[in-house]
Amino acid sequence: MKIKALFLALTLITISVAAQTPALPDTPAAKQFAAWLEAFNSGDRATMLAFQQKNNPSRADRIDSTMGFRAQTGGFEFKKAGESTATKFTGIVKERNSDQFAQFTIEVEATEPHKIVDLNLGAIPTPTEFAPARMSQPDALAALRAQMEKSTAEDKFAGAAMVVKDGKPVFSAAYGLADREKKTPDKVSTQFRIGSMNKMFTATATLQLVQAGKLQLTDTIGKILTDYPNADVASKVTIHHLLTHTGGTGDIFGPEFETHRRELKTLQDYVKLYGKRGLEFEPGSKWEYSNYGFLLLGVIVEKVSGQSYYDYVAEHIFKPAGMTATASLSEDEVVPSRSIGYTKFDGSADWKPNTDTLPYRGTSAGGGYSTVEDLTRFAAALQGHKLLDAKHTELLTTGKVETPRGGDKYAYGFFDHKVAGVRCFGHGGGAPGMNGELEICPELGYVIAVLANLDPPAAQRMAEFVGSRLPVH
Fold first, then answer.
1. Mean pLDDT of all residues in 309-323
2. Helix %, strand %, coil % of the chain (to 5)
Protein backbone atom coordinates (compact mmCIF):
# COMPACT_ATOMS: atom_id res chain seq x y z
CA MET A 1 0.00 0.00 0.00
CA LYS A 2 2.81 2.36 0.86
CA ILE A 3 4.45 1.82 -2.55
CA LYS A 4 1.14 2.49 -4.31
CA ALA A 5 0.59 5.65 -2.25
CA LEU A 6 4.09 6.86 -3.02
CA PHE A 7 3.61 6.15 -6.73
CA LEU A 8 0.32 8.05 -6.69
CA ALA A 9 1.91 11.01 -4.93
CA LEU A 10 4.79 11.17 -7.42
CA THR A 11 2.32 10.93 -10.29
CA LEU A 12 0.28 13.83 -8.90
CA ILE A 13 3.45 15.90 -8.45
CA THR A 14 4.48 15.17 -12.04
CA ILE A 15 1.04 16.16 -13.32
CA SER A 16 1.10 19.33 -11.21
CA VAL A 17 4.54 20.36 -12.48
CA ALA A 18 3.50 19.64 -16.06
CA ALA A 19 0.38 21.72 -15.61
CA GLN A 20 2.47 24.65 -14.33
CA THR A 21 4.89 24.55 -17.28
CA PRO A 22 3.39 26.53 -20.17
CA ALA A 23 3.42 25.01 -23.62
CA LEU A 24 5.70 26.43 -26.29
CA PRO A 25 4.26 27.49 -29.65
CA ASP A 26 4.88 25.20 -32.61
CA THR A 27 7.06 27.65 -34.54
CA PRO A 28 10.70 27.64 -35.72
CA ALA A 29 11.58 30.46 -33.33
CA ALA A 30 10.04 28.75 -30.29
CA LYS A 31 11.66 25.44 -31.20
CA GLN A 32 15.07 27.09 -31.39
CA PHE A 33 14.47 28.71 -28.02
CA ALA A 34 13.55 25.34 -26.52
CA ALA A 35 16.71 23.81 -27.98
CA TRP A 36 18.84 26.67 -26.66
CA LEU A 37 17.25 26.39 -23.21
CA GLU A 38 17.93 22.65 -23.08
CA ALA A 39 21.57 23.12 -24.06
CA PHE A 40 22.05 26.04 -21.67
CA ASN A 41 20.38 24.25 -18.75
CA SER A 42 22.52 21.16 -19.30
CA GLY A 43 25.47 23.06 -17.86
CA ASP A 44 27.73 21.04 -20.16
CA ARG A 45 30.27 23.14 -22.03
CA ALA A 46 30.60 20.74 -24.98
CA THR A 47 26.83 20.54 -25.41
CA MET A 48 26.46 24.33 -25.32
CA LEU A 49 29.37 24.90 -27.69
CA ALA A 50 28.02 22.38 -30.20
CA PHE A 51 24.63 24.11 -30.10
CA GLN A 52 26.17 27.54 -30.67
CA GLN A 53 28.41 26.34 -33.51
CA LYS A 54 25.40 24.85 -35.28
CA ASN A 55 22.64 27.32 -34.48
CA ASN A 56 24.25 30.59 -33.33
CA PRO A 57 27.82 30.63 -34.69
CA SER A 58 28.37 34.33 -33.93
CA ARG A 59 28.24 33.44 -30.21
CA ALA A 60 30.48 30.38 -30.34
CA ASP A 61 33.62 32.35 -29.49
CA ARG A 62 31.89 33.59 -26.31
CA ILE A 63 31.42 30.15 -24.82
CA ASP A 64 33.36 31.04 -21.66
CA SER A 65 31.12 34.00 -20.84
CA THR A 66 28.07 31.88 -21.67
CA MET A 67 29.15 29.19 -19.21
CA GLY A 68 29.94 31.84 -16.61
CA PHE A 69 26.40 33.15 -17.03
CA ARG A 70 25.09 29.59 -16.70
CA ALA A 71 27.00 29.13 -13.44
CA GLN A 72 25.63 32.41 -12.11
CA THR A 73 22.00 31.74 -12.97
CA GLY A 74 21.85 27.97 -12.55
CA GLY A 75 19.88 27.90 -15.79
CA PHE A 76 16.35 29.12 -16.47
CA GLU A 77 12.78 27.94 -16.08
CA PHE A 78 10.41 28.92 -18.88
CA LYS A 79 7.45 30.70 -17.27
CA LYS A 80 5.36 32.49 -19.88
CA ALA A 81 5.09 33.00 -23.65
CA GLY A 82 4.76 36.43 -25.18
CA GLU A 83 4.80 37.53 -28.82
CA SER A 84 5.06 34.63 -31.22
CA THR A 85 5.61 34.51 -34.98
CA ALA A 86 7.43 32.06 -37.20
CA THR A 87 10.72 33.95 -36.82
CA LYS A 88 10.35 35.73 -33.48
CA PHE A 89 9.43 34.55 -30.01
CA THR A 90 9.39 36.42 -26.72
CA GLY A 91 8.57 35.40 -23.20
CA ILE A 92 9.58 35.28 -19.55
CA VAL A 93 12.03 32.99 -17.76
CA LYS A 94 13.17 32.71 -14.15
CA GLU A 95 16.66 31.98 -12.86
CA ARG A 96 16.95 28.64 -11.09
CA ASN A 97 19.45 30.09 -8.59
CA SER A 98 17.38 33.08 -7.53
CA ASP A 99 14.08 34.94 -7.73
CA GLN A 100 15.32 36.95 -10.72
CA PHE A 101 13.10 37.02 -13.80
CA ALA A 102 14.15 37.93 -17.31
CA GLN A 103 12.41 38.71 -20.56
CA PHE A 104 13.85 37.03 -23.63
CA THR A 105 13.60 37.69 -27.33
CA ILE A 106 14.80 35.24 -29.96
CA GLU A 107 14.78 35.86 -33.70
CA VAL A 108 15.67 33.23 -36.29
CA GLU A 109 16.21 33.06 -40.02
CA ALA A 110 13.06 32.45 -42.08
CA THR A 111 14.57 29.51 -43.95
CA GLU A 112 15.90 26.15 -42.78
CA PRO A 113 17.77 25.46 -40.58
CA HIS A 114 16.42 28.63 -38.91
CA LYS A 115 19.72 29.76 -37.38
CA ILE A 116 19.49 32.27 -34.55
CA VAL A 117 19.83 35.86 -35.69
CA ASP A 118 19.48 37.40 -32.24
CA LEU A 119 18.92 36.19 -28.68
CA ASN A 120 18.63 38.63 -25.80
CA LEU A 121 17.73 38.28 -22.13
CA GLY A 122 17.08 41.29 -19.92
CA ALA A 123 16.34 41.37 -16.20
CA ILE A 124 12.85 42.52 -15.25
CA PRO A 125 11.08 43.05 -11.92
CA THR A 126 9.23 39.98 -10.65
CA PRO A 127 5.85 39.84 -12.41
CA THR A 128 3.01 40.04 -9.89
CA GLU A 129 1.64 36.67 -10.94
CA PHE A 130 4.95 34.99 -10.04
CA ALA A 131 5.77 36.89 -6.85
CA PRO A 132 6.79 34.63 -3.94
CA ALA A 133 4.38 34.48 -1.03
CA ARG A 134 4.86 37.02 1.73
CA MET A 135 5.79 35.43 5.05
CA SER A 136 5.74 36.39 8.69
CA GLN A 137 8.83 38.28 9.78
CA PRO A 138 10.34 35.31 11.67
CA ASP A 139 9.76 32.98 8.71
CA ALA A 140 11.17 35.44 6.17
CA LEU A 141 14.30 36.02 8.24
CA ALA A 142 14.72 32.28 8.82
CA ALA A 143 14.45 31.79 5.05
CA LEU A 144 17.11 34.48 4.52
CA ARG A 145 19.47 32.78 6.96
CA ALA A 146 18.94 29.44 5.25
CA GLN A 147 19.54 31.01 1.85
CA MET A 148 22.77 32.66 3.03
CA GLU A 149 23.98 29.36 4.51
CA LYS A 150 23.11 27.45 1.33
CA SER A 151 24.77 29.98 -0.98
CA THR A 152 27.88 30.12 1.21
CA ALA A 153 28.14 26.33 1.21
CA GLU A 154 27.93 26.44 -2.59
CA ASP A 155 30.68 29.12 -2.61
CA LYS A 156 28.31 31.66 -4.19
CA PHE A 157 28.08 34.07 -1.26
CA ALA A 158 30.47 35.66 1.20
CA GLY A 159 29.36 38.77 3.02
CA ALA A 160 27.00 40.27 5.56
CA ALA A 161 23.35 41.26 5.79
CA MET A 162 21.28 43.41 8.14
CA VAL A 163 17.53 43.96 8.23
CA VAL A 164 16.01 46.82 10.23
CA LYS A 165 12.30 47.15 11.04
CA ASP A 166 10.97 50.57 12.11
CA GLY A 167 14.47 51.63 13.14
CA LYS A 168 15.32 48.47 15.12
CA PRO A 169 17.67 45.73 13.83
CA VAL A 170 15.82 42.42 13.54
CA PHE A 171 18.45 40.43 11.64
CA SER A 172 22.21 40.50 11.21
CA ALA A 173 24.52 37.77 10.01
CA ALA A 174 27.76 37.25 8.14
CA TYR A 175 29.06 34.24 6.24
CA GLY A 176 32.14 33.32 4.25
CA LEU A 177 35.68 34.65 4.35
CA ALA A 178 36.97 38.21 4.23
CA ASP A 179 40.47 36.87 3.48
CA ARG A 180 40.66 33.38 2.01
CA GLU A 181 44.41 33.06 2.45
CA LYS A 182 44.33 33.94 6.15
CA LYS A 183 40.93 32.27 6.70
CA THR A 184 39.59 35.50 8.21
CA PRO A 185 35.80 35.28 8.48
CA ASP A 186 33.43 37.96 7.26
CA LYS A 187 31.68 39.75 10.12
CA VAL A 188 28.75 42.16 10.36
CA SER A 189 31.40 44.82 11.09
CA THR A 190 33.53 43.91 8.04
CA GLN A 191 34.11 46.80 5.66
CA PHE A 192 33.20 45.84 2.11
CA ARG A 193 33.84 47.81 -1.05
CA ILE A 194 30.49 49.21 -2.15
CA GLY A 195 31.03 50.22 -5.77
CA SER A 196 28.35 52.59 -7.05
CA MET A 197 26.56 52.83 -3.71
CA ASN A 198 28.71 55.96 -3.20
CA LYS A 199 26.34 57.65 -5.63
CA MET A 200 23.74 57.90 -2.86
CA PHE A 201 26.19 59.92 -0.76
CA THR A 202 27.17 62.11 -3.69
CA ALA A 203 23.56 62.85 -4.59
CA THR A 204 22.72 63.61 -0.95
CA ALA A 205 25.68 65.99 -0.76
CA THR A 206 24.53 67.73 -3.94
CA LEU A 207 20.97 68.15 -2.63
CA GLN A 208 22.34 69.54 0.64
CA LEU A 209 24.00 72.31 -1.37
CA VAL A 210 20.75 72.84 -3.30
CA GLN A 211 18.81 73.03 -0.04
CA ALA A 212 21.33 75.57 1.28
CA GLY A 213 20.82 77.76 -1.80
CA LYS A 214 24.41 77.32 -2.96
CA LEU A 215 23.47 75.35 -6.06
CA GLN A 216 20.48 75.00 -8.37
CA LEU A 217 19.39 71.90 -10.22
CA THR A 218 19.22 73.95 -13.42
CA ASP A 219 22.82 75.17 -13.12
CA THR A 220 25.06 73.99 -15.94
CA ILE A 221 28.46 72.43 -15.43
CA GLY A 222 30.03 75.52 -16.97
CA LYS A 223 28.37 77.86 -14.49
CA ILE A 224 30.14 76.09 -11.64
CA LEU A 225 33.29 74.79 -13.33
CA THR A 226 34.12 77.83 -15.42
CA ASP A 227 37.28 76.27 -16.85
CA TYR A 228 35.71 72.97 -17.92
CA PRO A 229 37.59 71.80 -21.07
CA ASN A 230 34.63 71.02 -23.37
CA ALA A 231 32.37 73.99 -24.07
CA ASP A 232 29.48 71.90 -25.41
CA VAL A 233 29.32 69.76 -22.27
CA ALA A 234 29.80 72.80 -20.04
CA SER A 235 26.96 74.78 -21.60
CA LYS A 236 24.34 72.03 -22.00
CA VAL A 237 24.63 69.59 -19.09
CA THR A 238 22.87 70.57 -15.87
CA ILE A 239 23.06 69.29 -12.30
CA HIS A 240 19.70 67.57 -12.87
CA HIS A 241 21.14 65.77 -15.89
CA LEU A 242 24.14 64.54 -13.92
CA LEU A 243 22.00 63.34 -11.01
CA THR A 244 19.69 61.37 -13.31
CA HIS A 245 22.23 59.92 -15.81
CA THR A 246 20.64 61.88 -18.64
CA GLY A 247 23.57 64.17 -19.48
CA GLY A 248 25.30 62.09 -22.16
CA THR A 249 28.60 62.37 -20.27
CA GLY A 250 29.65 58.75 -20.76
CA ASP A 251 31.57 56.33 -18.61
CA ILE A 252 35.10 56.23 -17.20
CA PHE A 253 35.83 52.53 -17.59
CA GLY A 254 37.60 51.08 -20.62
CA PRO A 255 41.09 51.02 -22.16
CA GLU A 256 41.98 54.55 -20.99
CA PHE A 257 41.05 53.74 -17.41
CA GLU A 258 43.04 50.50 -17.48
CA THR A 259 46.09 52.37 -18.78
CA HIS A 260 45.91 55.12 -16.13
CA ARG A 261 44.15 53.25 -13.30
CA ARG A 262 46.79 53.82 -10.63
CA GLU A 263 47.57 57.37 -11.78
CA LEU A 264 44.02 58.66 -11.23
CA LYS A 265 44.41 59.82 -7.63
CA THR A 266 42.12 62.87 -7.42
CA LEU A 267 38.79 63.78 -8.96
CA GLN A 268 40.57 66.43 -11.02
CA ASP A 269 42.78 63.72 -12.52
CA TYR A 270 39.67 62.19 -14.08
CA VAL A 271 38.62 65.55 -15.52
CA LYS A 272 42.09 65.99 -17.05
CA LEU A 273 41.77 62.56 -18.70
CA TYR A 274 38.15 62.68 -19.86
CA GLY A 275 37.15 66.36 -19.79
CA LYS A 276 37.88 67.18 -23.44
CA ARG A 277 35.58 64.57 -24.93
CA GLY A 278 32.16 65.56 -26.24
CA LEU A 279 28.60 64.50 -25.54
CA GLU A 280 27.40 60.99 -26.37
CA PHE A 281 23.83 62.26 -26.86
CA GLU A 282 21.82 65.43 -26.38
CA PRO A 283 21.32 66.05 -22.65
CA GLY A 284 17.86 65.07 -21.45
CA SER A 285 17.07 62.94 -24.49
CA LYS A 286 17.58 59.55 -22.84
CA TRP A 287 18.88 57.66 -19.79
CA GLU A 288 22.32 56.11 -19.90
CA TYR A 289 24.28 55.23 -16.77
CA SER A 290 27.24 57.58 -16.42
CA ASN A 291 29.95 57.12 -13.83
CA TYR A 292 31.69 60.17 -15.23
CA GLY A 293 28.58 62.24 -14.55
CA PHE A 294 28.76 61.41 -10.85
CA LEU A 295 32.51 62.00 -10.88
CA LEU A 296 31.70 65.54 -12.07
CA LEU A 297 29.17 65.96 -9.26
CA GLY A 298 32.00 65.31 -6.81
CA VAL A 299 34.08 67.99 -8.49
CA ILE A 300 31.12 70.37 -8.25
CA VAL A 301 30.66 69.57 -4.54
CA GLU A 302 34.33 70.46 -4.03
CA LYS A 303 34.02 73.72 -5.95
CA VAL A 304 30.84 74.91 -4.23
CA SER A 305 31.68 73.78 -0.68
CA GLY A 306 35.37 74.67 -0.68
CA GLN A 307 36.16 71.25 0.80
CA SER A 308 37.51 68.09 -0.76
CA TYR A 309 34.75 65.66 -1.70
CA TYR A 310 35.99 63.21 0.92
CA ASP A 311 36.04 65.79 3.72
CA TYR A 312 32.59 67.07 2.75
CA VAL A 313 30.82 63.71 2.87
CA ALA A 314 32.67 62.76 6.06
CA GLU A 315 31.52 65.94 7.82
CA HIS A 316 28.04 66.42 6.35
CA ILE A 317 26.84 62.84 5.77
CA PHE A 318 28.84 60.22 7.64
CA LYS A 319 29.19 62.16 10.91
CA PRO A 320 25.52 63.21 11.36
CA ALA A 321 24.40 59.72 10.34
CA GLY A 322 26.73 58.06 12.85
CA MET A 323 28.60 56.19 10.10
CA THR A 324 31.96 55.40 11.68
CA ALA A 325 33.23 52.73 9.27
CA THR A 326 32.57 54.32 5.87
CA ALA A 327 35.27 56.05 3.82
CA SER A 328 37.32 55.96 0.61
CA LEU A 329 40.91 55.70 1.78
CA SER A 330 43.31 54.70 -0.99
CA GLU A 331 44.06 51.06 -1.67
CA ASP A 332 47.66 51.46 -0.48
CA GLU A 333 46.49 52.47 3.00
CA VAL A 334 45.88 49.75 5.56
CA VAL A 335 42.23 49.38 6.57
CA PRO A 336 42.26 46.45 9.01
CA SER A 337 38.60 45.48 8.65
CA ARG A 338 38.40 45.90 4.87
CA SER A 339 37.75 42.59 3.14
CA ILE A 340 39.55 41.29 0.08
CA GLY A 341 37.33 41.07 -2.98
CA TYR A 342 37.29 37.85 -4.99
CA THR A 343 36.33 37.58 -8.64
CA LYS A 344 35.77 35.10 -11.45
CA PHE A 345 35.05 37.80 -14.02
CA ASP A 346 38.35 37.00 -15.76
CA GLY A 347 36.88 33.63 -16.74
CA SER A 348 38.70 31.68 -14.06
CA ALA A 349 37.12 28.67 -12.42
CA ASP A 350 38.35 29.70 -8.97
CA TRP A 351 37.95 32.90 -6.96
CA LYS A 352 40.92 35.26 -7.33
CA PRO A 353 41.67 38.56 -5.53
CA ASN A 354 40.39 41.59 -7.44
CA THR A 355 43.49 43.66 -6.60
CA ASP A 356 44.47 44.27 -10.23
CA THR A 357 41.08 45.82 -11.06
CA LEU A 358 40.85 48.38 -8.26
CA PRO A 359 41.26 52.14 -8.73
CA TYR A 360 43.76 54.04 -6.60
CA ARG A 361 40.91 55.37 -4.52
CA GLY A 362 37.12 55.44 -4.49
CA THR A 363 35.48 58.51 -6.01
CA SER A 364 32.17 60.32 -5.99
CA ALA A 365 31.01 57.80 -8.61
CA GLY A 366 31.86 54.77 -6.48
CA GLY A 367 34.54 52.60 -5.00
CA GLY A 368 34.51 53.42 -1.30
CA TYR A 369 33.77 50.95 1.47
CA SER A 370 31.21 50.60 4.25
CA THR A 371 29.47 48.11 6.54
CA VAL A 372 25.89 46.88 6.60
CA GLU A 373 25.52 48.63 9.98
CA ASP A 374 26.61 51.97 8.53
CA LEU A 375 24.33 51.64 5.51
CA THR A 376 21.31 51.13 7.75
CA ARG A 377 22.43 54.18 9.77
CA PHE A 378 22.54 56.19 6.53
CA ALA A 379 18.99 55.04 5.73
CA ALA A 380 17.80 56.03 9.22
CA ALA A 381 19.41 59.46 8.98
CA LEU A 382 17.86 60.01 5.57
CA GLN A 383 14.39 58.97 6.66
CA GLY A 384 14.73 60.91 9.92
CA HIS A 385 15.64 64.09 7.99
CA LYS A 386 19.04 64.43 9.64
CA LEU A 387 20.65 64.94 6.23
CA LEU A 388 17.97 66.79 4.29
CA ASP A 389 14.59 68.30 5.10
CA ALA A 390 11.43 66.40 4.12
CA LYS A 391 11.00 68.28 0.83
CA HIS A 392 14.52 67.61 -0.40
CA THR A 393 14.53 64.02 0.86
CA GLU A 394 11.48 63.34 -1.29
CA LEU A 395 13.10 65.15 -4.21
CA LEU A 396 16.22 63.01 -3.77
CA THR A 397 14.47 59.64 -3.67
CA THR A 398 11.43 59.96 -5.97
CA GLY A 399 11.88 58.48 -9.43
CA LYS A 400 12.16 60.88 -12.35
CA VAL A 401 13.41 59.01 -15.41
CA GLU A 402 12.48 55.59 -16.79
CA THR A 403 15.35 53.13 -17.04
CA PRO A 404 15.77 50.16 -19.40
CA ARG A 405 14.90 47.79 -16.54
CA GLY A 406 11.11 47.81 -16.77
CA GLY A 407 9.36 49.39 -13.80
CA ASP A 408 12.50 51.02 -12.40
CA LYS A 409 12.86 54.80 -12.32
CA TYR A 410 15.99 56.73 -11.46
CA ALA A 411 15.72 59.53 -8.93
CA TYR A 412 18.80 61.50 -7.83
CA GLY A 413 21.43 58.86 -7.08
CA PHE A 414 18.70 56.40 -6.06
CA PHE A 415 16.67 53.82 -7.92
CA ASP A 416 12.94 54.02 -7.19
CA HIS A 417 11.29 50.70 -7.95
CA LYS A 418 8.97 47.93 -6.85
CA VAL A 419 10.15 44.83 -4.97
CA ALA A 420 7.43 42.21 -5.40
CA GLY A 421 4.85 44.98 -5.78
CA VAL A 422 6.10 47.18 -2.91
CA ARG A 423 7.89 50.49 -3.48
CA CYS A 424 11.49 50.68 -2.31
CA PHE A 425 14.37 53.02 -3.08
CA GLY A 426 18.10 52.63 -2.77
CA HIS A 427 21.14 51.78 -4.85
CA GLY A 428 23.40 48.86 -5.54
CA GLY A 429 27.04 48.58 -6.39
CA GLY A 430 28.87 45.98 -8.40
CA ALA A 431 32.30 45.37 -9.89
CA PRO A 432 34.72 42.45 -9.94
CA GLY A 433 34.91 41.10 -6.39
CA MET A 434 32.34 43.44 -4.86
CA ASN A 435 28.57 43.72 -4.66
CA GLY A 436 26.17 45.59 -2.42
CA GLU A 437 22.53 46.57 -2.14
CA LEU A 438 20.59 48.97 0.06
CA GLU A 439 16.79 48.81 -0.08
CA ILE A 440 14.70 51.32 1.87
CA CYS A 441 11.05 50.24 1.82
CA PRO A 442 8.80 52.79 3.58
CA GLU A 443 5.60 50.83 2.93
CA LEU A 444 7.07 47.80 4.70
CA GLY A 445 8.93 49.74 7.36
CA TYR A 446 12.05 47.73 6.49
CA VAL A 447 15.60 48.62 5.50
CA ILE A 448 17.71 45.87 3.95
CA ALA A 449 21.49 46.12 3.58
CA VAL A 450 23.59 43.35 2.06
CA LEU A 451 27.29 43.50 1.16
CA ALA A 452 29.49 40.82 -0.40
CA ASN A 453 33.14 40.47 -1.33
CA LEU A 454 32.30 38.37 -4.39
CA ASP A 455 31.17 39.24 -7.91
CA PRO A 456 27.66 40.53 -8.56
CA PRO A 457 24.92 39.52 -8.07
CA ALA A 458 25.88 37.84 -4.76
CA ALA A 459 24.50 40.60 -2.51
CA GLN A 460 21.80 41.84 -4.86
CA ARG A 461 20.13 38.45 -5.07
CA MET A 462 20.14 38.09 -1.28
CA ALA A 463 18.51 41.50 -0.80
CA GLU A 464 15.85 40.69 -3.40
CA PHE A 465 15.21 37.32 -1.77
CA VAL A 466 14.31 38.71 1.64
CA GLY A 467 12.70 41.90 0.30
CA SER A 468 10.10 39.92 -1.61
CA ARG A 469 9.22 37.74 1.39
CA LEU A 470 8.99 40.17 4.31
CA PRO A 471 5.42 40.92 5.43
CA VAL A 472 3.60 43.98 4.11
CA HIS A 473 2.02 44.75 7.48
1. 98
2. 40, 25, 40
